[in-house]
Amino acid sequence: MAELQEARIVGTPALDGRYITEMDMWPLECPEFNRLHQFYDNLREGRFTTTKCKKCGHIAFPPGVICPKCWSEELEWVDLPRKGRVVTFTETQAGAPIGFPPPLILAWLNFGKDSPLKHLLVRIVNCAEGELKEGDEVKFVVFDVPSHPIEVKRETEVRDRVYYAFERVK
Ligand SMILES: [Zn+2]
Fold this sequence. Notes:
The chain is mainly beta. 5% of the residues lie in helices and 38% in strands. The strands form two sheets. Strands 6-5-4-7-8 form a five-stranded antiparallel sheet, covered by helices on one side.
């Protein structure tokens, strides 16, 4: 009888072998792979932004490379509010996907009627189990995610990455 081969996770050094590259849930943010790299550059400056159509004025989120209303490609970057209120939320206390330490909290936020972005479904970080309440004020926060190696002109470069979430205003 053939011996059972041990399953092995082949990690890349940059990811500390935590998961295989195919399971990487974070976007490739560099200009070589992502036409929306400006969004991530803005995150690095602490800005929460999206694209606004210069022709019809439509503001889309998530940002895009074309206006979903009039198909114009003439877009500009605009800032979004960095504080909102929790309308409702879910808390996953066990069995969250790899890379998401429990509790994994996803909240539906309200930014108010004057905001270009009315609502957002987003992850809440830095919050203990049972701590978040409906109506809580939350603020935008940027955090580092595992770097990603890419090949540029046959050289491997490791590019830093960031992502965003919200956290409670204490
Ligand atoms: Zn448009």
